[in-house]
Write a structure and sequence with these properties.
With about 350 residues, the protein is α+β, with helices and mostly antiparallel strands. Helices cover about 15% and strands about 35% of the residues. The protein has one domain: Roll (2,3-Dihydroxybiphenyl 1,2-Dioxygenase, domain 1), CATH 3.10.180.
Length: about 350
């Protein structure tokens, strides 16, 4: 078996109009209270997705140490981040929702209902178990589900990012892309019909839904923290879906990209390019983000949803004393010791 090239979801990008304000909500309500970086800078490499002009932004990458991927909370500072001019429906093209994992879905439901001023849907029977849908203050839909992969117990009702729901035009075509990207990948279910659990304002429409899972394997420095990967592909069968970021920039309001922790960027680039999925952006060498650094690249799924790939080179463990881990000096892909990652809790921001 060939060596794995991706260990898990590093983060999902969320475009908002005020990054510090949004981060306060995500850390207070959902537990993303450990910052990896908090930086204001220009984004010169992203001009293919920002109208050909260099724009400045404020980006905050925060994680939940219960386990799962993080959030890159992002706002333009050189312009006002623009929302979509229509209400997103399930199956629209792009990232429809984040799936956050919970050790106890019922407790998470009670917590969200008691703490959030935004809409929280009822507990429902999802195709793979119980869960519920919610909305953040910025109009983004999310889902809370159970999961078997955890890094540590935090006593909090919600963990990190387990996956995303992605709207596609052709499930079969998208399956080929995500399987090539995330091998090995299993199909948990493949169902077609009318689904009562979906948060749609268009009753009675049919969808095809396919849940893909990449189970945790101990490959990669952060694999034990990131855990399983869940990707649900959803195809609207009774209407023509809209593209969520049509006529808008990367970084505008909404879920802007899905980012994977990458273990060997050169090999992955060669593989994907040979399969017809070229990188559209590649930093090619280490690129600094405040106290973190790495190589990053972008490509698109068959419907243009942006996929970011990050090969981490440097990670802050304890910023207060200037303790950083140089990943490039490691000669193996085994997970970092638990105690080292748990030290990052000393960087926690409390409200």
């Amino acid at each position: 078996m060939s060596a794995p090239l991706i260990s898990g979801i590093q983060q999902v990008g969320i475009g908002v109009q005020n990054a510090p304000e949004a981060w306060q909500w995500y850390r207070r309500i959902l537990g993303f209270d450990v910052p990896v970086f908090d930086e204001k800078a220009e984004a010169p490499l992203m001009t293919p997705y920002t109208g050909g002009a260099v724009h400045a932004r404020h980006a905050i990458l925060a994680i939940n140490l219960a386990g799962g991927g993080g959030l890159e909370i992002w706002s333009f500072t050189s312009r006002t981040s623009q929302p979509a001019n229509f209400k997103t429906e399930p199956g629209d093209l792009g990232i429809n929702a984040i799936r956050f994992k919970s050790p106890d879905v019922k407790k998470a439901h009670e917590w969200l209902k008691s703490q959030s001023k935004e809409a929280v849907g009822p507990l429902v029977a999802l195709p793979e178990g119980e869960g519920f849908w919610g909305t953040d203050p910025y109009g983004n839909t999310f889902q809370i589900t159970g999961d078997a992969s955890w890094f540590q117990k935090t006593g909090k009702p919600v963990g990190g990012v387990a996956g995303v729901v992605v709207g596609v035009t052709d499930v079969d075509k998208s399956l080929v892309f995500y399987k090539n990207l995330l091998q090995p990948l299993e199909v948990v279910y493949d169902k077609t019909g009318v689904f009562e659990d979906l948060p749609t304002s268009i009753p009675g429409q049919r969808f095809r839904r396919v849940l893909l899972r990449k189970s945790f394997t101990p490959e990669g420095a952060f694999s034990k923290l990131l855990g399983d990967v869940q990707i649900e592909l959803i195809q609207a069968l009774d209407r023509t879906p809209k593209k969520i970021f049509e006529n808008r920039f990367w970084g505008d309001c909404g879920y802007i990209h899905l980012c994977f922790d990458t273990l060997d960027m050169d090999t992955l680039k060669t593989k994907l390019q040979a399969q017809g999925y070229p990188f559209t952006i590649d930093s090619e060498k280490s690129f600094g983000m405040e106290s973190a650094a790495g190589r990053f690249a972008y490509l698109e799924d068959p419907d243009g949803t942006l996929i970011e790939l990050v090969e981490t080179h440097k990670l802050p463990i304890l910023k207060k004393i200037g303790w950083f881990l140089d990943i490039q000096k490691r000669k193996h892909q085994r997970p970092l010791p638990d105690w080292m990652l748990k030290m990052m809790r000393l960087n926690r921001v409390k409200d």
